[in-house]
Amino acid sequence: MKVKVNTSDREDKRTARTTAMLLVLILVALVAAIVLLAPELFATLSPAFSEGVGLRTSAILSFFLTLVVMLLFTLAAGDGLIGELQFVLPAFFVFFLFFWLGIAWLF
Question: What residue spans define the domains of the chain?
Answer without folding.
Answer: 1-51, 52-107
